[in-house]
Amino acid sequence: RVRDRYGLVRGLEGGGSYDPGAESYSLWVPSTYRPGERHGLLVWISPTAFGGLRSEELKRLLAERRVIWIGANNAGNPRPVWERLSLALDAAQALPDFYDVDPRRVWIGGYSGGGRSASALLLLFPEVFTGGLCWMGVDTFEEIPVPYKPGHSWSASFERPGRALWTRSRKRPLALVTGDRDFNRSETRAVGLALRARGLERLLYLQIPDADHYFGLRQPWIGQALDWLDAGDRGG
Fold it and tell me: What's the confidence (pLDDT) of residue 7?
């Protein structure tokens, strides 16, 4: 399914091997979780080999919001894109077999290259993910002119969703987070404006003052992004 929807825009046909039985994930579940009490699910795509959550501050935040975190290990930026997308899809579809997941709160997120992959999954698989969080990186399905380089464009990264798919994905809330000194800032802003112009109904753009690309996931910005997703479309 990933190959069919993502397409071959960036050489998705090339290389890599994917054996689900050989993969591992980092899973964090709030200590307050109890069976029968539905929790949200944040599927994370990391730019590095570790897919887990280290920050105690963020763990407290997710616990307050009743959100489970899962991220594939060894699925960082060097991994073929189609494998990263497949790993995230597998996690989103497997976790409800083990935990009580609220189907209205299944979100895809990622940092840097992981944010780029997350944007593709949100727009191409709206039946799986009900919202997306792209931190310091985002992709889209059309060329976007570079405002400070006339004649240059950022390339499309995946196939344009068909009409029926876009009708659904355009209703999904998307949070784009960048920083004043993030080298992806201009592209993130341009992609956000282009998606709005194409009809994306709920898009939040957050630019963190004086933050560079390596600022990390921090409050209050991650909290604002999660609040946005929670206030967005709940299924459909």
Answer: 67
Report d(CA 175, CA 203) in Å as an integer. 6
**Structure-block tokens of residue 117:** 């992959």
Q: What's the DSSP call for residue 149?
A: S
Residues contacting 180, CB < 8 A, separation 6+: 207, 208, 209, 210, 211
The average pLDDT across 218-236 equals: 85
Tokens standing for residue 110: 């990622």
Give yes or no for a contact between 65 and 113, defined as CB atoms under 8 angstroms apart: no
Confidence at residue 53, expressed as pLDDT on a 0 to 100 scale: 96
Q: Beta-strand (E) ranges in the chain?
A: 25-28, 39-45, 67-72, 101-111, 131-135, 144-145, 153-154, 174-181, 203-212
What's the number of CA atoms in the CB half-sphere (13 Å) around residue 188? 30
Percent of the chain scoring above 90 in pLDDT: 87
Residue entry with tokens 């993030």: 182
pLDDT band, residue 16 (cuts 50/70/90): low
Neighbours of 66 (CB within 10 A): 15
DSSP state of 32: T
Q: Is 39 helix (H, G, I), strand (E, B) or coil?
A: strand
CA distances for 38 relative to 96, 97, 137, 235, angstroms: 10, 13, 30, 15
**Could you report the per-residue pLDDT of 26-71, keeping only the tens digit for each?**
999 999 999 999 999 999 999 999 999 999 999 999 999 999 999 9
Report d(CA 107, CA 229) in Å as an integer. Answer: 8
